[in-house]
Amino acid sequence: MTHPAPASSSHGGADALRGILLAFGAFAAFSCSDASVKLIRDGLPPYECAFFGSLSALVVFPFLLGGKDRLTDVFATRNRRLWMVRFIAYPLGIIGSVTAFSHLSMAEAFTLIFLQPSFVTLMSIVFLRERIGLPRWVAIGLGFVGVLIVLRPGLRPLSIGHLGAVVAGMAGAVSVVTFRASGTHEKQISLFGAGILGGITICGLVSIPGFALPTPHQAGLLAGYGLLAAVANVLLMHAAFHAPAGAIAPTQYSQMIWALAIGHLVFGDSADMVTLSGIGLIICSGLITLVREQEKHVPGPPPIAVSRGHAASMLVSEEQDAAL
């Protein structure tokens, strides 16, 4: 299956607008997916939910195939070490995100997960020897100050949900750094399929000893969780064919609006002005990072979709292609 060419500056405004609207739709679907798994709460272990979510991600595989690619190319790689890192990072991220949404409000979970761009920047300095300027250091500082405002350590108890959200953000950052390190040398089916296979394998093996058969209600929520995420990834890929990555990336922050709305309407959550101010700082941090990396033509962090489907991260490879 062949893909249309990624969007470029030559596309008209109507085409770019279509891509942006598709991206907004994708992140709305991702948010509904998060709400579905949150409704399960502690009814099933996080790794079992992650297993079913990874199985649903197989729906995305045909969209990752190039003209001469085969499904077996998911195992093909020029760097087996980076392939294995993606294989392990994805299940850690998806287990972390499920844990976070099970124990925290949606807005608070997203607050920590949205630290992913800062984690990417820090890891890129260490592992890719990237140099960053003052604006990106300011962005990192704003992000962590925002987290401190939201969490208010010492004034509020921390839980395993907070740890899960941080793990999700860090695992997503690890995946992004491996995408950058791989450059344009890997096929998309291998780049993104490695993590999905890791989710199925690792989460599946961990689930075996205490596997709990989902009730019909839980099965419906799991289906919504996985299929909505798969649909969102497909929408995001098609958005990338109509609009440049730089135009799509900021739409990821619409997830926070959905988190606040769904959290209030479905789960009865509320956010005070202190929390909202912290969320604002974190969003500013991410936007500064996105703008600076666009200006420097650095393949930036992909839109954050809680690392459930690496298809969202294909924007990294498209930015790399555009830079060649």
UniProtKB/TrEMBL annotation:
The lineage of its organism: Bacteria, Pseudomonadati, Pseudomonadota, Alphaproteobacteria, Acetobacterales. Keywords: Membrane, Transmembrane, Transmembrane helix. InterPro entries: EamA_dom, EmrE-like. SUPFAM superfamilies: Multidrug resistance efflux transporter EmrE. This is Drug/metabolite transporter superfamily permease. The chain crosses the membrane at residues 45-66, 87-104, 110-128, 137-154, 160-179, 191-213, 219-241. Residues 18-151 form the EamA domain. Pfam families: EamA.
